[in-house]
């Protein structure tokens, strides 16, 4: 089997919802291909008929039959190849609800496929799969549960801020200094790692993917718990995300001329699509940071003690709560100011003789917008702040 990447030509400017798959197709999938674990991830694949007959045909009953098919190919000893060429372009979902349904369906399908083959550890279905291919697929399957653990840890940020608890614990000023230096080393090494890791897909694509993982985590966690943990009588369901109530007519949020009003969009995304959780997280996080900052100025005396209180209770570098709140704000920002995307025909070059259309070159790329600039400004400022805290350990703290 051979499969090219699934690319898109209608991705909005700055890709506020992280709909592009560029990180997966330019980083993850090439790595899997080197391990002979390439997946079938789109409609443009080709495979041998004899191989398809060998696995009993395309498996049915799951929500990710394409990936399941490639897993069975690999398990039977067939070679799957990833064709790293821009050969096919499709369209991303054009509304928030459809995006949630797509991504939660993918998450459920990934875990479902892993469960069906014992998480790629043993079984007749994968007896010819190599050790490296098993490890690769096992990691992807098991890491699909990461959003559940992430959401549990996410609650600790607003709770600690509101309660005024320190973000770090130390017993002496010397420990405090070395904790700051360690934080600086961690941040800088992470920035360098991110830069090199994101090069194949593009630096801003990688940063969007990181933010997407944060704001999408609540939806993925709920769907995975309902699909694989809760019994049906407690709300268990194997279906993807479904908005509460009826969305009625389409919001047309990406059509500048026919989109619904701001209040209608806010109701649909915050209430029906349950992004109210994201709004509350941002509210309590920022409120907690403001309260604990105020307390440091009121309770402590002296510049040294005030700054130490501020750093340890709210502003510990690289001020992670700012990045988390900014990422969790994505659905709310999308509801307030959704991107405008041109009509589909404006993104295509159509041959007048054959009427065959191909995406325009400019439509194949994600345009750089103000949102991407603001995110990078935040990242740069928190990095500079971390460096200043590091420098202060040598002459002030």
Automatic annotation (TrEMBL):
One GO MF term: glycosyltransferase activity
InterPro entries associated with the record: Glyco_trans_2-like (IPR001173), Glycosyltr_2/OpgH_subfam (IPR050321), Nucleotide-diphossugar_trans (IPR029044)
Key words, A-Z: Glycosyltransferase, Membrane, Transferase, Transmembrane, Transmembrane helix
TM regions (residue ranges): 135-163, 175-193, 214-234, 266-294, 379-396
Sequence ranges assigned to domain Glycosyltransferase 2-like in this UniProt record: 30-162
Compartments, as annotated in UniProt: Membrane
Membrane topology: Multi-pass membrane protein
Highest taxon above the source species: Eukaryota
GO cellular component, as recorded: membrane
UniProt main location, coarse: membrane
Protein's UniProt name: Glycosyltransferase 2-like domain-containing protein
UniProt organism field: Trichoglossum hirsutum
Phylogenetic placement of the source organism: Eukaryota, Fungi, Dikarya, Ascomycota, Pezizomycotina
